[in-house]
Prior knowledge:
Elements: H1 3-7, E1 11-14, H2 22-25, H3 29-39, E2 50-52, H4 54-59, E3 64-69, H5 84-100, H6 106-110, H7 115-118, E4 123-127, H8 130-142, E5 146-150, H9 156-163, E6 168-171, H10 176-190, E7 193-194, H11 205-224, E8 231-235, H12 240-253, E9 259-265, H13 270-277, H14 301-310, E10 311-317, H15 322-330, H16 347-356, H17 359-364, E11 372-377, H18 384-391
Parallel strand pairs: 3-11, 4-5, 4-7, 5-6, 8-9, 8-11, 9-10
Antiparallel strand pairs: 1-10, 2-3
Helix pairs in contact: 3-11, 5-8, 5-11, 8-9, 11-12, 12-14
The structure holds pyridoxal-5'-phosphate.
Amino acid sequence: MMQEFRNARLGYAPGAPRDGKAAWQVLSPEDFARAQAEITAWPGYAPTPLVSLEALAKQAKVARIEYKHEGPRFGLGSFKALGGAYAAMRVLQRELSARLGRDIALADIRAGKYAEACRAITLVSATDGNHGRSLAWGCRNVCAPCRIYIHAEVSEGRAQAMRDLGAEVIRIDGDYDDSVAVAREEAAAQGWFVVSDTSWEGYSEPPRDVMAGYGVMTFEACEALDAVPTHVFLQGGVGGLAASVAAALRQYWKDDAPRVVVVEPDRAACLFESAQAHAPTAVEIAEETIMAGLSCGEPSEMAWEILAEEAQDFVTIPDSIVAPTVRLLALPQSSDPALEAGESAVAGLAALLAARCDAGLSVRLGLDATSRILLIGSEGVTDPEIFARIMAGEAA
Ligand SMILES: Cc1ncc(COP(=O)(O)O)c(C=O)c1O
């Protein structure tokens, strides 16, 4: 394995997994089923590929590496296409039902029956790129106005992708957590509706729908796998992806569900800190990580409820192994197919490869030659300029 992986310093904190109900109650089978019924009816729906990286598995001395490649998802470049767009429809469904005094069906909103009424309902969110893109796309599909708040470090390429989908993009000073706060304040003042992928006290319906939407991806992977994985490595921002996948895997495989390893950048390790404190814990982001989608300082409370029961391990990785992992996937030195992935997509794989260079960490994670690893390649090339810099060896 390459020098960068051997030299990498990873952080490790054990989780405290236990039998509980969060994987069934915070996200219920009905929540997943409702999202699945709607999203699989959208035009252009197709399962994303599950790619077996056989040569890389051999190199990492594990039995299997299965990589769920979310690059092609609805032409939006990431798994987030499943969350924000669906949650937007659910907000509109609840609001239209309240305004019109009867139950409104998602299928009718999708078909444009309420386009006029949707024009009067503004949806807003903060984002570091991918969630906003999903929300902007969802709003455009149903004619609802969309305002997206981004922080100082979100790349211009990602901002433009949201403008191209018709969203008004507002750049604020500060970091991701500041952008969440501004979106909340302005929405409260203006009567707009926040469609966030993170939850906080008293705010849970849209983030629950966002996480339910991600279930489409997990169930596709479950159906495509021919053996139950022993481990799933899940990258964490606010924790919505990891919690949704962990809950869906538990519901699908029950007691046989794989061991959940949560992976975060060491510069934004709020889930890692939460594991150590046994409670949702915020961290200060002193320096932005290259993994833009994972640069979140505050965990989603609902996500944490699930991860507290389901996650066995929490790992942090340095930025130094991200670009090498992107290049490894894009330019495989073997028979594996080439895959184009963004910085946040590869965090799980980067952690796996570095852990396999560290005998002690491999033992702690229960990794050996029989391990079958599921990875969520959560984005494709969502910012071509950054990807080009990584491929040219210019990005750290
Ligand atoms: C590509 C990508 N992967 C993973 C994540 C992490 O998801 P979450 O914030 O739900 O933990 C994000 C979040 O934006 C993302 O964009």
